[in-house]
Amino acid sequence: LKTPAVIVNFKAYSEVEGGKALKLAESCLEVSEESGIKISICPPMPELSLIASAISIPVLSQHVDAKKPGSATGWVTPQMVAASGAVGSLLNHSEHRMMLADIAAAVESCRSLDLVTVVCTDTAVTSAAAASLSPDFIAVEPPELIGGDVSVTDARPEVVSEAVSAVRNINSSVKVLCGAGVKTGKDVSKAIELGAAGVLLASGVVKAANPKEILRDLVQYL
Ligand code: G3P
Asked: Ligand 1 atom closest to Cα of 94?
């Protein structure tokens, strides 16, 4: 993924059930094309393949399991993600935590399949731990601010800057994103000032009455 990276996680909001996910993906594509900023998207899992084949911006899975192809009912293997046409996956999202050993194994499998990995964390300490697994990105998000109205960049700016320096000390090739409450272009530029390579966001776009307007505002300073 190109940086600055703007990743929109559709989560499991009712606003993106069924065909509504494709509509939001099309809005992301349109703003991405007009602004020249690569917006990546994480559609709901059942829509992954359909959206990855219909839309030309990068599509990521919301989750991937450390499972091998075969007897793994209900789990999502890295191979399935790759075959769906997605280019990568979030891992260890605050709403879908994983054990450290499973994050390590999943990152490794994704790497062998050329899938981009975005490991979510909550503090500078867990970001440093995740950096030792050498994912492509770490996305630091204080859970208590997720889905709220105050951006991490205003409420806990030190979490972002401390995660950036902790990760740099462990593995300087890992890029750090931040998320939680990010909703405006001003929040995004503050994230960049704090040393982040981009943002991971959800409700500000997914629940907006006019997502395109919000997306245009979000990318305006990049
Ligand atoms: O995955 C992004 C997310 O957890 C942040 O959510 O709604 O605070 O932008 P939100």
From this structure: 4
